[in-house]
Design a protein that fits this description.
GO terms for molecular function: peptidyl-tRNA hydrolase activity. By secondary structure, the protein is an alpha/beta fold. 38% of the residues lie in helices and 19% in strands. The protein has a seven-stranded mixed β-sheet with strand order 2-3-4-1-5-7-6, sandwiched between helices. The protein starts with a helix and ends with a helix.
Amino acid sequence: MPVLRDLFTRLFGRDSAPSSQKAAGLDPANLSAEWLIVGLGNPGAKYAATRHNVGYMAVDDLLAQAGDVLEPVRGHKLSVASFTVEDTTALVVRSHTYMNLSGDPIAPLAEQLGVPAERIIVIHDELDLPSGTVRLKKGGNENGHNGLKSLTERLGTRDYLRVRVGIGRPSKGGSIPEWVLAPVDASPEFESSIATAADAARLIVAEGLSKAQNEIHSRVK
């Protein structure tokens, strides 16, 4: 029961600002950051608890540590929250578009803020890792992930940083679209992987990719 309760809170209790703030939205001219932390997923309650939305879940977990919430940005299809790691400012970002258009709002934001690809951290689901595993890397192929494909196309590079949250693959002959859009297993292992992904993003900002890899990859699954 605690795992299910924590999952429900993460999915529906910390993911957005109050309705009065939603109506106004943040002025994009007032935003500034040295890093972007982007959680990938699909918007709406229909997809909230699916494997494809672990990126959304991880950024909510990250923000929950400080009691922060995401707020919409006027004129942009995304919500953000400022997040400080030691003396470094990051913007935690969630796109309002569907997964295959993730790059459409993220790339203009990064350009506006002057944040290069090597300081954009993308948290996403990874079919090629066992469920519960979290791994970090810079660049590489998208491996069929439509959110990553969109980001690569719009950013013009693959050299952004990735926090890969393992969801495993369906059994032989199983449908990948059905698998990624199916509900997550609300288990302690799953909860741990989300918390680790959030921690990984913070570590990258604080200590750099190499040190974060050493720390995260040494943890027992």
